[in-house]
Amino acid sequence: MESTKVALGIDLGGTKTAFGFVNKKGKCYGVKSIPTNSHQPAKNLVKRIFDVYSDWIAKDKEKYQVMGIGIGAPNGNYFKGTIENPPNLRWGTTKMVELIEKDFDLPAVLTNDANAAAIGEQKFGAGKNLKNFIVITLGTGLGSGIVVDGRLVYGHDGFAGELGHMVVRPNGRLCGCGRRGCLETYASVSGIIRTVFELQANLPQDSKLRKIAYHDLDGEQIYKLAKEGDPLALKAFDETTRILGEGLATSVAHLSPEAIILFGGLSLAEEFIFKPTKQYLEKNLLTIFKNKVRIIPSALPPGDAAVMGAAALMWHELSLKKDNPKEK
Amino acid sequence: MESTKVALGIDLGGTKTAFGFVNKKGKCYGVKSIPTNSHQPAKNLVKRIFDVYSDWIAKDKEKYQVMGIGIGAPNGNYFKGTIENPPNLRWGTTKMVELIEKDFDLPAVLTNDANAAAIGEQKFGAGKNLKNFIVITLGTGLGSGIVVDGRLVYGHDGFAGELGHMVVRPNGRLCGCGRRGCLETYASVSGIIRTVFELQANLPQDSKLRKIAYHDLDGEQIYKLAKEGDPLALKAFDETTRILGEGLATSVAHLSPEAIILFGGLSLAEEFIFKPTKQYLEKNLLTIFKNKVRIIPSALPPGDAAVMGAAALMWHELSLKKDNPKEK
User: B179 in contact with A at a CB cutoff of 8 Å?
Assistant: First the structure.
């Protein structure tokens, strides 16, 4: 049996780290997950990934030829291969590519998780035929990756694409970043939960949401109640998409993309997200941008998407080296 | 005498149209200016430019070898060579490249005026050694051009870089575009004039500005009074740079540039613009972007800059053709 060339994609998150093999065409050969345990040193995590990986490879010795490793991580710096002091990991700045390359003896490349998602969509998903698009991940926070003229925008330092931290409400909600009114305090899972509590304060209507404490509420419950017609849940989606539409109009004014791909937890509440976001976006666009930008869902399988994005980053890197064989 | 290879740069504005010859190194051989007269057909303007150009060339027959024509114009579309319905010209959509190429029998290329400024800075000015920067023109309105990884960002339709129309104050000042709270209603010459009148309403202090009617006030008067220590004039610059700093923080969150180049009328009030804009920008930046972005002045001569930018666009186009000789 001929072995399959694959990249190992690693999605390094605050709570868990998932990884799996992905071939050049985007076929994912299963994903495994372990706790990140960032209270222990980063090299401990790398060792634990390597142990699971070694067992996996040992079992399928002839099956996989691993070409390299792509990593998506919060505050991942593509240029330096570092993870730089993200709020949800306790490592300060970590030379993650160096650690991975040492233990695995394979080339590795790293970027932030939302950039990895954008490359995943470009190589394997909804961005396949697009040259100019933005990927927005609506998870606990709001992440983003920007593709201009077919290339991911890194900026001069590797940190471009922090759309979750554009200010949409001056003096608005306090954000985890220390500033006020950032888009992600409104348009994300944590944002819609905050909105539900603001609405409970501001509106008189009764709602099943009034029986649920802040710590017990999640995005799925709001979605479920919206489907049942709960007025506060419906209003919460309306507010969320209204502010998301306003914020995305500012992104369109910068970049004039042909599409914005929505991805992550909140985007699964499809009927309450895509159409209203599009309507509020259109309402806020400058005339020259009207009726040009599509708002579309991710085309990657939700469970494997982050790992596929990380692997896509490595495949992209390998294709660059093929094009420029003289460079390392 | 050997002739000098030059590009003709045309800066097409709402009131006047300036043009001149610029060589590959950014030497400008004088600029001539005629009224745009957009109440007459566009081809009338093209003919009048051609007449002046022909006389100029006839006088210096051996001196110039004109390689092509670059045009900067409001709502200029690089991809289509059209000027698309700008508020300050009355032509609707005009196939300007086609008109110019026909009359001049030379290759022509067009983009919007702020994009031309960005290419001018990149080729001849403050952007020479930069790969990631934004040019902001603070004229009557606020224009912008974005360079990512050495390449101007056009977006999918040629209209990227409308930073003047990001909303910084939801439900704020009514903009000429029909929307509310756009950055250019605060940070531009017309914006600071509006601010002066808002301050006259809101503050009790006396000021020489209270003797000047709206239609009689210009940016230079506000600058002059600020230098004299007039409290309202100083406060107007403070407000303007505060909101500009806030807006640019959103642009940095998108693009993470190494520098932002300020250009145009209002930027000539240097001491009241650069340092405070930088301070307000820093105050509003996400931590990972702090102390990284420079705010710098244009390095093009104010009078010739727009013409040089338009010519730079043609020189850039010619260099692309040299690199890809197979393409037309």
Answer: yes
